[in-house]
Structure to design on (282 residues):
């Protein structure tokens, strides 16, 4: 399957409006949507949609290059016994794509495979002066999902959807599995959990100054910091984590590793960060 990247996500919140200042603090252009809010990080009309709900992941949109690739994906999903639902004209219009299908992964998460993002060609201008975000061929960033069906989910994403394992981390009895679908070290990580949960999503700014200024804005606004500035061992991202209005975290970083498939070797890391990423002092 020819998945090119994480195109967009839909998230939920009890207080949708709390995401407006939070999203702007991240450097996103935030606008109204018929179900809530949209957050824009680049030339796409949106990368994140916020709707009403208990706080979590409503759907993840994975991008394919064209309609033929989407139809091939439908055939592969059907052959694997996966039930699909085709997006209606209205749903495609809302997502601003030319076509999409919907399925559910073994952990219970809704995923959308889509093609043909519809651009409005408005210039991206960050309200906080962020120089820009690393998206394009690498997708919008990554998501980390807690899943009650780890083994089945890894099998689904690798053997059905065509993701590749980048590496593993085993903090306990089970693996955390980092998966890629382009050169970004991981667009998806799967963590064993008793119930489905979005642990965090990540957006990658272009410069360390962007990260530093954004961290300062969080501190000045009194936004809870979940993990301090640090550098990850596997994807080399220099980042911090903050507590979002939905209850899960958002990772904001820069300098993520790009994988060369021809030379990459899968390894197991023994700690997640080279330095930093500590819980703030009480």
């Amino acid at each position: 399957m020819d998945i090119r990247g994480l195109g967009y996500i839909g998230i939920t919140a009890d207080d949708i409006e709390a995401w407006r200042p939070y999203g702007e603090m991240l450097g996103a252009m935030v606008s109204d949507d018929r179900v809530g809010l949209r957050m824009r990080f680049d030339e796409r009309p949106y990368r994140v949609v916020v709707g009403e709900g208990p706080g979590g992941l409503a759907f993840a949109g994975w991008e394919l290059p064209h309609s033929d690739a989407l139809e091939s994906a439908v055939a592969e999903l059907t052959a694997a016994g996966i039930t699909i639902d085709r997006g209606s004209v209205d749903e495609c219009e809302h997502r601003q794509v030319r076509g999409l299908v919907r399925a559910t992964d073994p952990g219970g998460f809704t995923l959308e495979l889509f093609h043909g993002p519809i651009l409005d060609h408005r210039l991206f201008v960050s309200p906080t002066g962020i120089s820009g975000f690393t998206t394009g061929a690498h997708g919008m960033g990554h998501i980390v999902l807690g899943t009650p069906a780890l083994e089945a989910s890894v099998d689904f994403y690798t053997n059905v959807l065509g993701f590749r394992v980048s590496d593993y981390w085993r903090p306990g009895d089970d693996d955390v599995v980092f998966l890629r679908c382009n050169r970004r070290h991981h667009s998806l990580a799967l963590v064993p959990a008793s119930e489905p949960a979005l642990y965090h999503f990540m957006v990658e700014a272009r410069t360390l100054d962007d990260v530093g200024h954004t961290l300062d804005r969080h501190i000045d606004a009194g936004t809870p910091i979940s993990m301090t500035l640090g550098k990850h061992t596997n994807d080399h991202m220099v980042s911090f984590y903050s507590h979002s209005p939905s209850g899960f975290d958002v990772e904001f970083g820069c300098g993520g590793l790009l994988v060369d498939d021809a030379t990459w070797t899968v390894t197991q890391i023994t700690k997640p960060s080279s330095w930093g990423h500590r819980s703030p002092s009480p």
